[in-house]
Amino acid sequence: MDRESHRPSTASSQDSLMTAGSPEASSVSNGDLSDNINVVVRVRPTNDIETRHKDSHALQYPGEGQILVDEEQTTQTKLFTFSVVFEPEATQEDVLEYCGVKRLCDAALDGFASTIMAYGQTGAGKTYTMTGTEAGKDNQPGLIQLSFAYLFNELKQRKETTYVVRASYLEIYKEHVLDLLNPSPKSLQVRWNKNKGHYAENLFVVECEDIGDLQGVLEEGRKNRQIRSHEMNEHSSRSHTILTVYLNSEQKDFDDPTSYIRKQGKLSFVDLAGSEKTKKTKSQGSTLKEANNINKSLLVLGNCISMLADPKKRNGHIPYRDSTLTKLLSDSLAGNGMALIIACVSPARSNTLETIQTLRYASRARRVKTKPMVRMDPRELTILSLRREVKLLRMENAYLRQQIKNNAGAVKLDKVVSTAVLPKTPDSGLEIDNSEDPIKDRQMVTKYMQENEELRAENAEIHRIREILIRDHEAVCRENERLQNKLRDLEIAATNGEGLSPAMFGSTPTPPLGTPASAGNGSWRTLHELAKQPLPNKNMDKELREIRDTLGSSDSGGSGRRSRQTSQERLLLSPTVTKIGRC
């Protein structure tokens, strides 16, 4: 390739770049259902501290995406293989060009969820790789700024699609989520739902009309991020940050120009805090607590990746909920998105153990598979799928009808000589061979046409039955609601000691049995009227006769008040009321 022959010698070898373009790294574009996490390694130059201590190099670069680590304690070498290995002299532009960032940007524009993550020990160059230097200091942009420029350049090229660009910026500090664009001492809650997965509730999202707005989001977040100093890094990040660019697109459906296809792509940049050994960093007080939280979250992340990389465990329980970081990264690790991990390491021999640990972590991550899916509204996705299915069925019907006409004409010929093979049907893939007897071909096509018509008729009958069931269900619901209201009225009347009117039983011609009763003598008069007037329900005659006998006996004797109370209780507890309420 001419382009590779002119590339700077500062990056990895040409063979490594060829590895970056392997089918494994781009299986989605080939129509596969899964995609491996792409992992590259970047080796930073030696820093001032390592130079002062005359720290020697412990890394070698054989080529073909390989990196060799000399382990001084065991006098052995460990070999690791990745998609690309960037040597210390590689520039930010080299990393952008060959690590696969552009592929993820294109995927986000097409509606996928893409994640770019930097991992490594503290002081390994993660933040520099992602965000570059601060404004006014050598002006070295990072992958985030370069990706912004690439995104807006692509937006200008895609004139047939309308995009709305928004952005958010958060940090995970001591297991709490903080909004970097809307600083507040109160942390955000991490919620979960079926459509979004895990997300930060009430996260501030800014609409960005141009690249300057995105640059402003980045600078505002960098200004509010938690940064401390320790022995190994003067500007050590004390939190994990996630900058997310939301790319909502709208495009006309080519199959139906009157409708639109809406997609919800997103591109996330994750700058992880570095793993630390407190003996080296000499952290104390609050810095020590921060280091413990950082190491805990990175440990959980490593456990999740180890289980996802193991074919026997990836279908089991993955402990995403053990850390706030893994909750928010669950979709990126093994969900419906695409991911790139940039493992940043130091070449110094004093950091050999940390380098080996980072490379082992990155090697496991290479075996993790995701299942990228275009992000769309579920209702629109269903509608789009049905439209395409209808189109395929119409094409298949037209094809079969045409074959019937062709074969019907061929039967009239005395002899048919044909060596052509009919094309496959648009949907089923059925292949018909014209070398057979045309009568047999016509019978086969007719059979499929009959099956098609039968299926269409069966489908129409199912729809008709479904409509009938829906209407019956609605009628039953209305009747149920009416009976529930009647039961509620009866219960209220019985509880308040009111008279039972025939209207409560659904019999409107019969006049009311009495006026509502109040406490004292009113209740006594109501029972007299209830006992004297006829009721439409024959099941109550026996009980009313007992009530009349009770009322008659209560006129003579000193137990009138007790008899009245007993009569009221018997009426309230009458099974007839319950029976009427259930009918």
Automatic annotation (TrEMBL):
Q: What is the lineage of its organism?
A: Eukaryota, Metazoa, Ecdysozoa, Arthropoda, Chelicerata
Q: Which PROSITE patterns match?
A: KINESIN_MOTOR_1, KINESIN_MOTOR_2
Q: Where is the Kinesin motor domain?
A: 36-368
Residue numbers spanned by region Disordered: 1-33, 499-522, 550-583
- Indicate which residues the UniProt annotation says bind ATP: G120, Q121, T122, G123, A124, G125, K126, T127
Q: Which GO terms describe its molecular function?
A: ATP binding; microtubule binding; microtubule motor activity
Keyword Zinc-finger set for record: no
Instruction: Give the family per the record.
Output: Belongs to the TRAFAC class myosin-kinesin ATPase superfamily. Kinesin family.
Q: Where is the composition biased (Polar residues)?
A: 8-33
A biological-process GO annotation: spindle elongation
Q: Where in the cell is it found?
A: Cytoplasm, Cytoskeleton
The record's section on InterPro entries has: Kinesin-like_fam, Kinesin_motor_CS, Kinesin_motor_dom, Kinesin_motor_dom_sf, P-loop_NTPase
CDD domains in alphabetical order: KISc
What cellular component terms from Gene Ontology apply here? Answer: microtubule; microtubule associated complex
Name the keywords, alphabetized: ATP-binding, Cytoplasm, Cytoskeleton, Microtubule, Motor protein, Nucleotide-binding
| Keyword Cytoplasm appears in the UniProt entry | yes
Q: What is this protein called?
A: Kinesin-like protein
Q: Which Pfam family, giving just one, matches this sequence?
A: Kinesin
Coiled-coil residue spans: none
Give the principal location in a single coarse category.
cytoplasm
